[in-house]
Amino acid sequence: MTSTSTTATFQSLEPTPQEAKSQLTSRARDRRRALGRRLRQGALLAALLGATAAAALALRPRPVPVDLATISQGRLVTAIEESGTTRVMDRYVVSSPVLGSIARSALDVGARVAVGDRLTEVAPARSPLLDERARAEAQARLGATLSALGQVRSQAERARVALELAQQELARAQRLGSTLSQKELEQSTFDVRLRSQEVTSAEFAVSVAQGEVRMARVALGEGRERGARDPHIEIVAPVSGVVLRVHQKSATVVQAGSPLLELGDPAALEVVVDLLTTDAVQIHPGTAVSISGWGGARTLSAKVRQIEPSAFTRPSALGVDEQRVNVVIALTESPEHWRQLGDGYRVNARLVLWEGERVMQVPLGAVFRHGDGWAVFRVQDEVARLAPVTLGHRAESAVEVLTGLKLGDGIVVHPGDRVKDNVRVEPR
Length: 428
Known about the structure:
Elements: H1 2-13, H2 17-59, E1 64-70, E2 72-88, E3 91-95, E4 100-102, E5 112-113, E6 118-124, H3 132-176, H4 182-220, E7 233-236, E8 241-246, E9 252-254, E10 259-264, E11 269-276, H5 277-280, E12 288-292, E13 300-307, E14 312-315, E15 321-331, E16 346-363, E17 368-370, E18 373-380, E19 383-394, E20 398-403, E21 410-413, E22 423-427
Parallel strand pairs: 1-22
Antiparallel strand pairs: 1-21, 2-11, 2-16, 3-10, 4-6, 4-9, 5-8, 6-7, 8-10, 11-15, 12-13, 12-16, 13-15, 14-15, 16-20, 17-18, 18-19, 18-21, 19-20, 19-22
Helix pairs in contact: 3-4
């Protein structure tokens, strides 16, 4: 009885077919649920990784767009540009020698006169006889004019000797031919032309001094008999030239020394430019100058002839007082090239301080102050690197680089506040 009961119990523990099928279905469902959980977890992890990558990319700094330039080698010219005016080199003011009345002038501005031509005449005012003091003053004035005449004659002779020496130097330079440089030959030609103008100026001064001597003799009464019928004093041209200005056109009474006419030679022009004294110390007589903006299509060549020794104060456009000095420039072109120019015309002068042919240079907008020196941003592997540099001559839009860069380097032009050392950049 006991054994039979035990066998029956074991048989009851075996699963039936339906129970086995149900267990298989349950296990399959559990596997699907686990797989779904793993898929959802994988998708969530992938989403988290994608969001993290996107956030990292979004937070990563973007390259700064910049303007780039390449270090090059070429011609560099350092110059000063300033406006100036033309003026007649030798201007002579003809004045009345005595108190009296003058007739109406028959000369107009632009009229040509020769030495000794009659300009006008003065009828001296009736006056008492010269007393001892007045006569002594007139005699002293005559002596002073005679001394001045001797002085200007000596200067004229010195100018002629200098002209002869310059002509000899030019002839020697022309004989040497190819052994001299073109610049030395041009300098000799320029010296001859300059000395020739100095001789002409000295001869004009002699003529003026002779006229002053004649006027002093007339004022003293020499060469005239008392009671002569014609008391008029004829005023003649002391030099040959053109009437630049008529101070007294109509008949009127003038004081002694009153200006009547201005004479000069428009073919002997020079240019006067007033420069800042800090710029003027960089130039010297012989500095090359180009004249433009005068109305003609041709740019005229010139050279600095003189830097006046005394400066003056002039307010700038902003009202700031500036120390300036006049620089006198001589035209080296033939007069037929600037025949249209006249006295008092406005021109632009460009004075060349320095020039080089094969100069390593960068745009002026690429350099900036860095500490006590200068620096640029050099682009290397799309990254801006701070590069200290040593600068040389500075031109209008470029500057010479002595050290710190090499040919072919890329640099940032006009870097903004966003451009810093080790910042990624890209061409604009």
